[in-house]
């Protein structure tokens, strides 16, 4: 395998490691709070549609089996998030009207919040530290990079008997291209309702690691495509996946900026006056 092939494979495996764990922090956060109100239902629903289109496009384009398996996994995780949101709403309604507002799909607002999210906010004010958060993010990224390199090494060791890999396929298949562009548009559009929801909830109940792993996974995925080949036809075949990855990175960075802004403001509001 060439140096470019090795780099592409390593970046691809790091991306896979990111996408394997990307949903876990938010699923755990929802379970911890017994609430899914930090997430926008529109965000998860549109993301689910994007993953379904991505799955269909990957199958039609004959992409790697790992890509197809991951697409199935993403779809299942989207469904889990939606189940959490509606399950916790249902249980909250059974426990009493004080736990939930019955008016809007996005229940929690700044002026009208559930006790669970209110308690979470008080806890975050006491515990939030920018330095501590960056240390946590750094540790998480170190983990996924190590896992990705390990996956690349294992795959290379097992695949030695298979000989040299084929050169990147630049054959265009129009149906997969259409689904690829639709999924890219859905991934980009999904972030918009979440960003607007964050203005209301101040990112309460939202795990920043969901977006840290998403940014890292999209970045390494786009770089792995470019490292594999810079041939115009190959880049054109993967243009929708590149566009979807690159543009969502900017929106995910915006969400992280929201998170740090609101945490810093809330932490500042709890400081004693001098």
TrEMBL record:
GO MF annotation, one: basic amino acid transmembrane transporter activity
Reaction equation(s) it catalyzes: L-histidine(out) + L-arginine(in) = L-histidine(in) + L-arginine(out)
Major localization class: membrane
Organism superkingdom: Eukaryota
Keywords: Membrane, Transmembrane, Transmembrane helix
GO-annotated cellular components: lytic vacuole membrane
Protein location: Membrane
A Pfam match: PQ-loop
Bilayer-crossing regions: 6-28, 40-61, 67-88, 134-158, 178-196, 208-230, 242-262
GO biological process: vacuolar transmembrane transport
Topology term for the membrane: Multi-pass membrane protein
InterPro entries xref list: LAAT-1 (IPR051415), PQ-loop_rpt (IPR006603)
PANTHER family per the UniProt record, alphabetical: SEVEN TRANSMEMBRANE PROTEIN 1, SEVEN TRANSMEMBRANE PROTEIN 1-RELATED
Assigned protein family: Belongs to the laat-1 family.
Full protein name: PQ-loop-domain-containing protein
Taxonomic path: Eukaryota, Fungi, Dikarya, Basidiomycota, Agaricomycotina
């Amino acid at each position: 395998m060439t140096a470019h092939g090795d780099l592409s494979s390593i970046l691809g495996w790091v991306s896979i490691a990111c996408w394997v764990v990307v949903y876990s922090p938010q699923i755990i956060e929802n379970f911890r709070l017994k609430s899914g109100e930090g997430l926008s239902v529109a965000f998860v629903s549109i993301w689910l549609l994007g993953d379904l289109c991505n799955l269909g496009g990957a199958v039609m384009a004959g992409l790697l089996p790992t890509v197809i398996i991951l697409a199935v996994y993403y779809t299942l995780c989207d469904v889990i998030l939606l189940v959490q949101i509606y399950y916790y709403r249902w249980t909250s309604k059974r426990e009493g009207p004080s736990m939930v507002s019955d008016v809007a799909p996005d229940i929690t607002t700044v002026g009208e919040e559930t006790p669970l999210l209110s308690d979470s906010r008080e806890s975050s004010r006491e515990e939030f530290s920018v330095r501590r958060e960056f240390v946590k993010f750094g540790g998480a990224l170190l983990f996924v990079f190590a896992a990705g390199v390990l996956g690349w090494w294992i795959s290379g060791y097992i695949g030695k008997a298979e000989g040299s890999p084929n050169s990147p396929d630049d054959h265009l298949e129009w149906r997969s291209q259409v689904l690829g562009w639709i999924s890219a548009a859905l991934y980009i559009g999904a972030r918009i309702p979440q960003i607007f929801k964050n203005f209301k909830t101040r990112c309460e109940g939202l795990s920043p690691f969901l977006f840290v792993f998403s940014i890292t996974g999209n970045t390494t995925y786009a770089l792995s495509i470019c490292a594999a080949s810079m041939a115009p036809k190959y880049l054109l075949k993967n243009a929708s996946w590149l566009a979807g990855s690159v543009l969502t990175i900017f929106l995910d960075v915006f969400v992280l900026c929201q998170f740090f802004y609101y945490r810093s403001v809330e932490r500042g509001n709890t400081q004693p006056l001098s």
